[in-house]
Amino acid sequence: MTDISAYSSEELKTLASKIREKILATVSKNGGHLSSTMGAVDLIVAMHKVFDVRKDPFIFDVSHQAYAHKLLTGRWEAFDTLRQFGGLSGYTKPSESEYDYYVAGHSSTSISLAVGAAKAIALKGEDRIPVAFIGDGSMSAGMVYEALNELGDRKYPVVIILNDNEMSIAKPIGAISKLLSQTMAGSFYQKFKGKVEKMLEHVPEGAAYMAKRFEDSFKLITPGILFEEMGIEYIGPVDGHNIETLVETMEVAKAFGKPVIIHAQTTKGKGYEIAEGTKEHWHGVSAFDLKTGTSAKKSGPKAATAIFSDMLVKMADEDEKIVGVTAAMPSGTGMSAAIEKYPERFWDVAIAEQHAVTSMGPLAKEGFKPFCAIYSTFLQRGYDQVIHDIALMDLGVAFAIDRAGIVGEDGETHQGAFDISYLRAIPNMTLFAPYNETTMKLAMTFAKAYSRPCAFRYPRGAFIADDCASPAFELGKSVLLQEGEEMLFIGYGNGVGRAEKTAALLDTRPAILDLRFVKPLDEAMLLKLAETYKKWFVFSDSAKQGGVGSALLEMLNEKEIHNVALTSFEYDDHFIRHGNTKLVEESLGLLPEQLAAKIKKEILYDS
After folding, report:
1. Phi and psi for 65 in degrees, rounded to 5?
2. Average pLDDT in the 461-465 region?
3. Contact between 251 and 50 (Cβ < 8 Å)
4. How many domains does the chain have?
5. Per-residue pLDDT averaged across 285-309, rounded?
6. 71 lies in the same domain as 199
7. Are the C-beta atoms of residues 381 and 354 closer than 8 Å to each other?
8. Comparing C-alpha atoms, which of 559, 573, 577, 435 is closest to residue 498?
9. Consecutive H or E run containing 424
10. 211-240 burial, b if ≥16 CB within 10 A, otherwise e?
11. Does residue 238 contact residue 249 with C-beta atoms inside 8 Å?
């Protein structure tokens, strides 16, 4: 680990430059989060200068901006393996380093974690200070204010560093506001404020009132009033790239002995001019040419998200009742095109999945058709709302679940493994999945016309299966893609393509079923197939527990069919690590050639 507590300001600046060079060299080769992490370098360097990471919990919100922290905690040489299979995670990970306090991949958890850490420290009577690093985007989630509410009441010594890289919390207006904000960031104002507070304890009531009004006159024209009113000291805004100022400010905050928030304004992509500013596509990038900024990614088949995006706009063109919402992922979910064309009907509600889900309920109740586009991993955050505000009301909201299955380099916190398991248990919920471009459009057409809660899932990137003609979706109906011998391959969603690729490697010809609906199941078709095929193999990019195989076994048991042997190739009961998707699938034994070998072995064993 690099101890920089004795570094001079010039040494810190030089170090920050070296860190940016290392991040650029690595991310341009491996891909990763760029603009946010480049903008956070100076703040993180100052954190490591003022606080002691060996004892103080450093808690990064989302943690995709923590690359500088990784480089300062003994991972400089290993950093070249960032996001690679078997290499460093793109997020904080305690199993990777003792200096990573907590796993983080979803936003807006850091302040709650800091409050919990502060409680533990208080109970143990230790001299440690939790430091929470959070971006302005994460401040849009309600969990943050739940934590701030308790923190302001309990007064635990916690330092919160607010990295405002788009000035979306509060933008200083004019030279006077800037001067006053800088004044509040300095030790002079903080000492003056402390003296005012002490004076208020002893002066007559009238004088106290005047003194309090004098202090408040500073606060009212700065963005800190919200936090101050919640009982949390506020410092800022400060220049998030002036290391000397940041160190001084953090020293002031550290000495408070109570909760304080430092509001630092930074520039996304700082140090790499091509990526500087609020350019969304530089947030997370694939490998790119460092000189030109041009992506090194090769063009391929059309991504499922792009198919969704085009079809959504087409449906919106034809029907003004089509509306939609996403939670801070307009381009990631493909909803940006609809938002741009119909801003009065499609909304990005920021990092607020719970609100996104619930707000669509009344629209469905009022006769509109909402499409709620959220990644599988992030829909977990709105689970209670799916149950209580949509399914319980039996409202026709369609959940478009992007990034279903393995998502690759983002790893454990982002894999879309659980949506079938957690949605299948909900009454009134209908679950289905397409497996290529044509069936994606047909699935969306079905969802549009369906008047009850439903959810359809699709992968990151392109579908495995080639496109082909297909019949329309009918509620609870599957499609037999080919007759076969001896065994039945049951594919759900992208699993259909995996089943087809696996079947092509076998000497025998299996029957292949596009299950389409996992809730409700096509019991008539399945019972008919059970008469002919006694070996069933399930292909679905999802968790095994509570997944497609479980649904089929429940049905077979209920119907008292005991002569069908079912093998599921869904994910086993553990979190799936990060890395190139193909390498991850290979480690799980899910490549078509691996599956074909398993099936051949099972057939040989049984014979």
Report:
1. -100, 10
2. 96
3. yes
4. 2
5. 87
6. no
7. yes
8. 435
9. helix 419-424
10. beeebeebbeebbbeebbebbbbbbbbbbb
11. yes
Contact 37, 62 (CB under 8 A): no
Query: What is the percent of the chain with per-residue pLDDT over 90, rounded to a whole number?
Result: 77
pLDDT band at 497; cut points 50, 70, 90: very high
**Which residue among 269, 285, 301 closes a domain?**
285
Within 8 A by CB and 6+ apart from 566, the residues are 536, 537, 538, 549, 552, 553, 556
Rg (CA), the chain: 27
Residue 423 has pLDDT above 90, yes or no: yes
65: CB partners within 8 A, 6+ apart: 33, 36, 37, 39, 40, 133, 135, 163
Q: Show the DSSP H helices in 434-494 as ranges.
A: 437-449
Q: Do both 140 and 31 map to the same domain?
A: yes
- Are residues 266 and 142 both part of a single domain? yes
pLDDT tens digits for range 363-385? 999 999 999 999 999 999 999 99
Which residues form the domain of 98? 9-167+239-285
Tokens 């977990």 -> residue = 380
The answer to whether position 20 is within a domain reads yes
Q: Distance (Å, rounded) from C-alpha 121 to C-alpha 230? A: 22
- Pick the closest to residue 270 from 65, 417, 533 (CA basis): 65
Strand pairing of 131-135 and 159-164? parallel
For the annotated catalytic residues, the residue numbers are 268, 353, 381
